Amino acid sequence: MSTITRKLIWLFCFLVTVSLLSSLAVRNSHRKIRALVLRAQIVLLIESILSLGSIYIWRNISQVYPAVGAGLIYEVVARETRLTTSGSGQCSSRPSRARPSYIKRRFQTLWKLFLFTIIVSAQLCYPLGVTYVSVEPYTIVLFCYICLGIHILLMTNITLYHLFGYVFQKIFCPETDPVLANFVKVVVIVIVSGFLAFSAVSQAFYGPIIKKVDVPINNLPKSFDGTRIVQVSDIHLGPTVGRSQLQRAIQLINSLNPDLVSITGDLVDSPVEYLSEAALPLTQISPPYGTYFVTGNHEYYTGDVDAWINYLKTLGVKCLHNENIQIHHPNKYEDYFFLAGTDDVQGEQFRYGDHGFKLEEALVGTNQEHPIILLAHRPAAAYTALSADRGINLVLSGHTHGGQFFPMVISVYFANPYFSGLYQYSPSSYVYVSSGTFYWGIPMRLFSTPEVTLVTLHAT
User: Fold this and answer.
1) Which domain covers residue 226, as residue numbers?
2) Which of 76, 166, 265, 431 could form an S-S bond across to 98 if both were Cys, CB 3.0 to 4.6 Å?
3) What's 165's DSSP letter?
4) What is the pLDDT of residues 238-260, one digit of tens each?
């Protein structure tokens, strides 16, 4: 382990200690101060991890050709031997210096400059994303977040190459020239990472697709058979998602003629003062049974959750803040179902007043004679709610993004009780987990698809 790596590890440990102490110091402070400290902690954590990753990337693929002598790239790999005569008349041999390749040196310089740009831009993405937020994303912020995605892909592919390339080489090419092996490694990693990055960015910018799901609901009145609920989740208005993208999602929603619209958390990533105009397209939704919202973890990261709840009301969006309402049929008022919503658990963890995942409060006044549909941001909250055996027929969740892109897909899959799509918890209860309408931060989607979901209820 090099001196620089050791110093960075010690610095990382120091920053973690400072971060923990700062959390203790402000735990009783105003929520905006706590949110500011949290953001600073996230910046420190991300920058520390990225620094170690940057060293890992640089050491593995910055040198396309092996360096010889004082770091020069040589045309001649084999060394020529020449005789020299010492002062005592004895002969000795020493290698002559090969001539450097001008083309290779220039290519190596350009490649290092390009790689350095990606690494530095990745390091800058989160500080810029916190600082520069507007109605539409800034180009420099988008570029830096794309570089962060490339950074992650490079680290992943380098690791995979070491794991599988080493085995392949030992079995099929045990005598491979190290110069050629290094060149092949860099080329393969760069080509694969570039292809995956291009595919992931294209998928993200293409936007959400419409996904249709049919769910049977016990005790659903016949008058509600065929009721259409459109779910959007994890829009993440903020540094890399702006008003124009939200407008596209609204157009998809309206094209489905929904009876009810649910927004299951993580709508925003910044305070109201930065994104009030970006959220205005929400006024264009006017389903007969209304538009409803529950908080996700990112609403609490903004430190401005109450302001957002109040502002969304002015846009025609009601927040179900650990509460429920009755959705009555317009022609048969005695026919109704309960729509309940819970806050994200982050509200309690951050001590945001009366916020937090409070299932009992959300279900006050409900009964199993009428269907209960719950909006809860996290799949873990959905599992907890169904395990409580309160007669909940359907839970709509989000949070996972379907993993968003590789390699996070793997960790997200194992970290959540439900990953993406429709799950049946019992004969009469279901969970639907949206893979998200856009993305968080990195504008990439790989092995996951953003969606606007049409959930059709059927009486059984």
Assistant:
1) 207-459
2) 76
3) I
4) 999 999 999 999 999 999 999 99
